[in-house]
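Tutorial handout. Part one gives the primary structure; part two gives the three-dimensional structure as tokens.
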Amino acid sequence: MANIDYKQSGVDVEEGYRAVSLYKEHAKRAAIPGMLTGLGAFNGMFEVPKGIKNPVMVSGTDGVGTKLDIAFQMKKYDTVGIDCVAMSVNDILCSGVQTLFFLDYIACGKLDAEVAADLVKGVSDGCIETGCALLGGETAEMPDFYDEGKYDLAGFGVGVGDKKQMITGEDIKQNDVLIGLSSTGVHSNGFSLVRKLVKNFDEKFIYDGKDTGKTIGEVLLTPTRIYVKPVMEVLKKYRKSIHGMVHVTGGGFYENIPRMYPKAEKSKRQLISIIKRDSWDIPPVFGELIKRGADVEKVYNTFNMGIGFVLAVNAKEADEIIEMFNNNAHKYSKPGIPDMKAYRIGRVAYAEGEVNGQKDAVLFED
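Part two.
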């Protein structure tokens, strides 16, 4: 048998070195105080911020999912990294905590340093938008395991907060107001269904009979909104008035909103959500997906339907909090993406009867 080396087995070490070299430039852009190591070390070190009396570490992990397939087909790789960061840092935010650092994981069948660097560019962009460091990562080239040209992208973030200031949902009460923060579109969930409904991502995206100037693929690749900075700014002033928070991801309204409520003790009624229909603007992409065959009875159990983050707040401060979100929206503007809007979308109530499932936990009213 002839002697073979690692490259002949399908792993190009030199391409890996080139990819890491490109990564370092993107990681530098996301450097923040507290970092003790940079890319290239065996691990990432970050100093716990001073002044936290009872520090609690909060972590979150996620991937981009099958949204990546659209990026591959369109050969646009520089935005899905933002989604990767968003999915974790928005989860961490639900406890009222700012993410401090993020690490990514990229896997592929055959490494292309330029493509991998574009993926990391998106991760870096997401970290900058969050205000956290890109502390490290891993790239795995696995020939014969992944198809050539296909990549997987995942990661995790870590934040630290004061135990006494954590938002746990325990303070949510009847008549709290539900505030919804607008999404940028589909975000990063439900794409297995999206890919069944849309076969040609180069089609023009027509809305209200007019050409939007974008393809449907470009609309679907709009990155997930990162809510960290606007929410953390509101928390500085209204933390005691914000009783619970939800990142609306896979499972939509029905699966995610109930997750913030404490489970009722025996003989006590369960808190549920009453959502007011037509209380927010639904992005056109959802209408397009329904037109293409998405079950209108189940879309709120699959997609975010235009609301990517929900807060349960004291009714007395609700209008002030909504006003603060909307007055500050311009500070977080991104080219080509509508500014975030805050809406009063519903209220917290006690269930009239037994809560047997999602449909009992989230009710819609006209």
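Part three, for discussion. The two ends are 74 Å apart (CA to CA). The chain has a mean pLDDT of 93.
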